[in-house]
């Protein structure tokens, strides 16, 4: 698996599974995800996954959504509008 | 159109002169009123309010909650007062002076608050075919001093007044008012002057405080956001800026390999607006919640970019630290029709449930100078994130400010000063003027902190409502400015 085909993703943990977020993170790793961080307050898990294993994350019990991470930005310094 | 709630036209009267439904009780009747009175009941004390109307005012009270599907007829019920439980309003008959006296005697803790005459409401006439009253491509520039009441009495029987209100009419009206304003101002007052909208000809300079703080009535507020924790998730912060000496500052960087120190300037500018000092080293004052606790989370690199994951890490950090407000002057453009992020929406709802309000910039992708309108960006397009648009010193929508084009949360919720905004900048520059919805957003965040101090028991959703309900209405479409211009409590 080459580095280019990895996607940065955010995984949303279901309301009912928030207490088990750490074990869900471990299951995500077994499903192919490299977990970067677990955000316990908001119930999300961020990391990366090979592109062809993205769909598999959705089937992990306790996961209610998976999104590819977006890039956000502000205008370059000196731009007309910030 | 059919936007009326009721239609009451008696005896061909079209000017509402005597109104209808003349009732016993004898109070002097105001023009266009029914002779009945509306009493506002406090939301949490509707039963007590109903009881007070019966026992203290001596009315027979019927309650909508007692009728199936909330539908009832007061006449059929034989009561002289009806309490609408769902909306907390009673419609009562009788002598208004008696009611007012009763209320006055009831004191501050009374479950009854406001009394006002019930007005006669007419259906608005249909628009003439093809005659859009306010086409989207007309630049709105009615100056803020004009608060022209729209004639409320327009009926099918009345002369077809709306047909006269054409685009040309409005443009001519605007030009005339613009000319009058220029004349009153004695020439070009320039961007340094802010004209207090409600105060006639008073012109205020920025010598003491920025126009944005004046327009949002921050200077008159008795609140400082004292001890309210506010997180600004941005490019970091110049923690050595002299205007913030002695302040309690908590920082964290979520950008791999970069320290919190603001190598961009954007974050320092936003923190300045939201949380800057009451008396900065050099006037004017530019900061709102000078008593607030600063949480500077770096989620954008010094080059000005970031990833969803860094932002979520910042939100998580802010909530874990008990921040009541999170300000995010960042975003990614979305396409018309593109749905909002389910993950950010769920996160924002969880944040609200934990007491944290998230405020985000609507985005700057539009260019209204050339007729280009872009939808509110990610993540401000989530229904549970307060989306902020930008207005200028004349309270016109900023040319770059995005519009609420997408349904389901893609709306603009509120507007704030976002053009020619003066605030802090990393040393040695110290201060800079910028424009963008990025600059509008921390105005709302700082004012949110004032609301939190003013209503310490309020939930985050309550704070949201207080902000939007307290906004100053603007003569602009809500798709551009939401509830209007944010106002300090």
Overview of the molecule:
The complex is a heterodimer of chains A (82) and B (489). With 82 residues, chain A is of the alpha+beta class. Chain A contains two helices and five strands; from the N terminus they run βαββαββ. In chain A, a hairpin with a 4-residue loop joins strand 2 and strand 3. The N and C termini of chain A lie far apart (39 Å). The mean pLDDT of chain A is 92. Helices cover 25% and strands 17% of the residues of chain B. In chain B, strands 9-10-8-12-13-14-15 form a seven-stranded parallel sheet, with helices on both faces. Chain B has a five-stranded mixed sheet with strand order 2-3-4-1-5, with helices on one face. In chain B, strand 12, helix 9 and strand 13 form a beta-alpha-beta unit. In chain B, helix 7 packs parallel to helix 10 and helix 10 (437-454) crosses helix 11. The longest helix of chain B has 19 residues, at 167-185. The model of chain B is unreliable at 1-31, 119-170 and 182-203 (pLDDT under 50). Classes of the chains: A alpha+beta (82), B alpha/beta (489). The A-B interface holds A 8, 10, 12, 36-37, 39-44, 46-47, 64-65, 67, 69-77, 80-82 and B 234-235, 264-266, 269, 300, 303-309, 311-313, 315-316, 319-320, 329-332, 341-343, 346-347, 350-351, 354, 364, 378, 400, 434-436, 438-439. Strand 5 (71-73) of chain A pairs antiparallel with strand 11 of chain B.
Give a brief description.
Chain A has 82 residues and is an alpha+beta fold. Chain A is 18% helix and 37% strand. In chain A, a hairpin with a 4-residue loop joins β2 (34-39) and β3 (44-50).
List the helices and strands and how they pair.
The complex is a heterodimer of chains A (82) and B (489).
Chain A: E1 6-13, H1 21-30, E2 34-39, E3 44-50, H2 54-58, E4 63-68, E5 71-73
Chain B: E1 33-41, H1 46-55, E2 61-63, H2 74-77, E3 81-84, E4 89-92, H3 96-106, E5 112-119, H4 161-164, H5 167-185, E6 193-195, E7 203-205, H6 211-215, E8 229-234, E9 249-253, H7 266-275, E10 293-298, E11 305-307, H8 308-320, E12 325-328, H9 342-353, E13 357-361, E14 386-391, E15 414-417, E16 421-425, E17 430-434, H10 437-454, H11 460-469, H12 478-481
Parallel strand pairs in B: 2-3, 8-10, 8-12, 9-10, 12-13, 13-14, 14-15
Antiparallel strand pairs in B: 1-4, 1-5, 3-4, 6-7, 16-17
């Amino acid at each position: 698996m080459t580095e280019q085909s990895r996607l940065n993703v955010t995984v949303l943990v279901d309301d009912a599974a928030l207490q088990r977020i750490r074990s869900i993170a471990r299951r995500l790793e077994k499903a192919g995800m490299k977990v970067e961080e677990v955000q316990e307050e908001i119930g999300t898990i961020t990391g990366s996954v090979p592109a062809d294993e993205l769909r598999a994350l959705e089937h992990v019990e306790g996961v209610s959504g998976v999104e590819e991470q977006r890039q956000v930005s502000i205008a370059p310094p000196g731009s007309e509008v910030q | 159109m059919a936007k009326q709630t009721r239609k009451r036209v008696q005896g061909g009267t079209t000017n509402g002169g005597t109104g209808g439904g003349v009732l016993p009780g004898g109070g002097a009747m105001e023009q266009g009123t029914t002779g009945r009175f509306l009493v506002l009941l406090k939301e949490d004390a509707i039963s007590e309010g109903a009881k007070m109307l019966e026992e203290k005012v001596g009315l027979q009270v019927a309650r909508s909650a007692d009728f199936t599907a909330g539908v009832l007829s007061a006449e059929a019920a034989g009561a002289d007062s009806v309490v609408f439980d769902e909306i907390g309003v009673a419609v009562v008959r009788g002598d208004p002076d008696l009611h007012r006296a009763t209320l006055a005697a009831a004191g501050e803790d009374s479950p009854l608050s406001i009394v006002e005459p019930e007005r006669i409401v007419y259906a608005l006439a249909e628009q003439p075919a093809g005659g859009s009253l306010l086409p989207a491509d007309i630049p709105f520039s009615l100056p803020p001093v004009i608060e022209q009441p729209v004639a409320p009495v327009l009926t099918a029987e009345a002369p077809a007044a709306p047909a006269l209100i054409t685009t040309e009419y409005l443009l001519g009206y605007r030009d005339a008012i613009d000319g009058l304003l220029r004349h009153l101002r004695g020439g070009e007052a320039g961007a340094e002057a802010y004209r207090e909208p409600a105060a006639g000809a008073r012109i205020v300079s920025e010598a003491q405080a920025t126009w944005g703080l004046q327009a949002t009535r921050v200077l008159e507020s008795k609140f400082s956001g004292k001890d309210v924790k506010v997180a600004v998730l941005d490019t970091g912060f110049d923690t050595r800026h002299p205007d913030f000496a002695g302040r309690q500052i908590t920082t964290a960087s979520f950008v791999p390999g970069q320290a919190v120190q603001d190598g961009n300037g954007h974050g320092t500018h936003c923190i300045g607006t939201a949380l800057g000092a009451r008396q900065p080293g050099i006037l004017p004052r530019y900061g709102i919640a000078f008593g607030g606790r600063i949480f500077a989370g770096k989620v954008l690199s010094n080059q000005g970019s970031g990833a969803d994951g860094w932002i979520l890490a910042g939100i998580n950090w802010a909530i874990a630290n008990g921040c009541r407000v999170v300000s995010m002057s960042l975003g990614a453009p979305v396409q018309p029709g593109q749905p909002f992020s389910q993950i950010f929406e769920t996160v924002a709802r969880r944040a609200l449930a934990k007491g944290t309000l998230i405020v985000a910039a609507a985005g700057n992708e539009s260019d209204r100078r050339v007729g280009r309108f872009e939808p509110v960006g990610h993540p401000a397009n989530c229904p549970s994130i307060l989306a902020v648009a930008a207005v200028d010193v004349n309270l016109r929508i900023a040319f770059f400010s995005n519009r609420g084009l997408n349904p389901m949360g893609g709306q603009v919720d509120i507007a704030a000063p976002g053009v020619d905004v003066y605030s802090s900048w990393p040393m040695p520059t110290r201060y800079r003027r910028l424009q963008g919805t990025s600059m509008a957003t921390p105005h709302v965040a700082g004012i949110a902190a004032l609301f939190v101090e003013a209503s310490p028991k309020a939930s985050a959703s309550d704070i949201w409502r207080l902000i939007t309900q307290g906004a100053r209405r603007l003569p602009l479409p809500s798709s551009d400015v939401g509830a209007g211009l944010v106002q300090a409590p």
